[in-house]
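Appendix B. Worked example

We walk through a single record from start to finish. Start with the input: the chain for Aminotransferase class I/II-fold pyridoxal phosphate-dependent enzyme, Gelidibacter salicanalis, length 399.
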Amino acid sequence: MAFKPANNIQDLQYFGEFGGVNPSISDSSTYTFLSAKTMFDTFEGNADGCYLYSRHSTPSNLYLGQALAAMEGTETATVTASGMGAITAVLMQLCSAGDHIVSSRTIYGGTYAFLKNFTPRFNIETSFVDITKLETVEAAITPKTKVLYCESVSNPLLEVADIAALSKLAKKHNLKLVVDNTFSPLSISPTQLGADIVIHSLTKFINGSSDTVGGVVCGTQEFIDNLRNVNDGACMLLGSTMDSLRAASILKNLRTLHIRMQQHSLNAKYLAERFEKDGLKTVYPGLESHTSHELFKSMMNEKYGFGGMLTVDIGSLDKANALMELMQKQNLGYLAVSLGFYKTLFSAPGSSTSSEIPVEEQKEMGLSDGLIRFSIGLDADIERTYTMMNTCMKELDIL
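Next comes the structure step. The output line below is what the pipeline stores for this chain.
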């Protein structure tokens, strides 16, 4: 039977303590016990269903974690205060001094900076590779390698990782395959393809309203328990704790994710096809011209499309900036970082979300000054949006 992630979310039933159709929000930082022994047992991790302190967990956070685990098809999940809170905790949990990571070279700038500049302080080194070339990935693996890290669809170049093939490689070398699935929730289900751990920035498509920062780690019960361990768990000790009110808010928005992702994908595919027809250098996994179009098709949960992200290379930073400013002036979207909002967001990643990557490395991976990253919104009339964008481009002599 085909994996149906949205069904898994909707099949979960949570009632509030007074019969509300939404679960009650646990608005407490600490919890009381009827006996001192139960408190001791909870500290030791042996009192299932008891709550101690909100940095450990809360009912609200567990509800959201259960829903996200159901979406990704993992045993369980733990939520964090940000996507980076999830990424850093996972990598610090899996690696010790002297260990090595093989990572895709085209990843979110914050992740790149963490691996390039921060983890070497702890004697953890990273090799950055072209994740689409399996022989290059395998050649980078050493006896000290512990983790193979990638994004399902990379930020910002939209390279597509062959998760099933990478999983075989990881198993061959006894590595953990960690996949950031932020760009493709519902569209791709990494654990169904062999990923060990799936990470999301909940800030983006999953929440969808650009009002909350959050993250999640989806994995086995054993691994999530390790992350939460009071003695040596990275989530526990690094303290990236999600607030219960935010967890409750994201859970409500998660229930409409399937509808939103279909519209994001529909709109993005329409614009990508029109831009490409206009002669613009357009990258979108839903285009047959994308080098990994067939790979994405083979991995995707078809109903949710190829995602809401696309890029267009305008040729220069000045032209890119002028176009983005004009599109914002015409109310076609916002010149802003992040993604997954109801309104289209656009930015030049080389000077924003990927600015942590040195310019020479940006050029090597194909990230040009004139590249605009679009997070396509939920426009009801995408034909009108295209017409107005086309007019903006003609006004600036881009077309």
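Two observations about the output. The mean pLDDT is 93. Residues 257-277 form the longest helix (21 residues).
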